[in-house]
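<discrete_fold_record>
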Amino acid sequence: MPSPVDDQYMVLGIPWASSPTPEQSTSPLLPMIQVIGGIARLLRILKSDRLAEPALQAYDSHFNQCVNAFPAQHQDRPNGYINPTELPPMIYLQNARLMLHRHNLTPICDFVERSAAIDHCVLVAKDTAGLLRRCMQPSGEPRSHEAEQHDTWESRMISASSAFLCTHVWRCTLFLCFRLDFENALSCARASATLGNARPVNVDCGRYLEFFLQEMISKLDQGAKLDTDEEMIAYVSGDLQGSFENSWIWQESKDGVHLGKPLQISSEKDQKHRKSQIQSLPPAKSQTKEYDWNGWDDVLRTMERMFHKKEKERQHLAFQVQSLRPSMMLPPLAPSPNSMSPSNRMSIKDLI
């Protein structure tokens, strides 16, 4: 909300509703209103099967304007501390960007469109990881030793957490692992591990992430290419498969092969039929127990192992490239001017 200090910018003769610059702004309220206004329109276009490039560019431009409207302390210092209580407006924006581009993961889109969708989702995930790293550090404020013991970044993160934050960080971790960016994925996973069971949904996110890593490692051991593996693309889409309107793995088709098109429920009769099918399903078993998976520590160990393995492969490849380079040959020395002088030349008479 606006603070009383913002009144200094309400100068006579200047429209009071003019947008302050990032240096003048002390509250993210204005960009937050812009984000919410864009989400209402975003939900409408997400009902289509695919998003065209002009629509994606228009929304990217809108979201970039929202980012530039945030206070300067959230932009100018990429390594500066951010209080976790200030995260929600920026996380809402990042989540809207992720929802926008994740929509084109559907098999209706061609390989280029799906690859571009994953690339943009990874960019959003990297931005989110950067925000989390800025929260996971000491605030730098002068405080007593007792206050530092009780008021840590971990306690601030837990107190500011929400189910929305947990699910967004989980989605970002999936995309980062999918592109083997374990450095940023570890930042997201460490934040999720810090939250622990503070939110029940975070336990489910950890369980799914553990399963995802196991499947991904198995695919990589088989030499599969993740970008073209339909099973892994469905896994990385996460909760996108949680609704009949957006999913493509639950649809009915002949010969047991999915058509790659999200279900379209147009008429009211179809909606009632679909709801009756859902209601007739047996209730899902409770999976909020912590003992049916190995916990966040095991997820972090798996990611760290994959990170070190990738670093060793990168170093080995760099060594091979270096060893294959031809040795640099020094150019032949030019004859010195003194050696070409008449006194140093050997005559034919001397040779005879």
The first helix runs from residue 29 to 45. Confidence is low (pLDDT under 50) at residues 14-18, 253-260, 262-266, 284-288. The two ends are 105 Å apart (CA to CA). The CA atoms of residues 213 and 302 lie 8 Å apart.
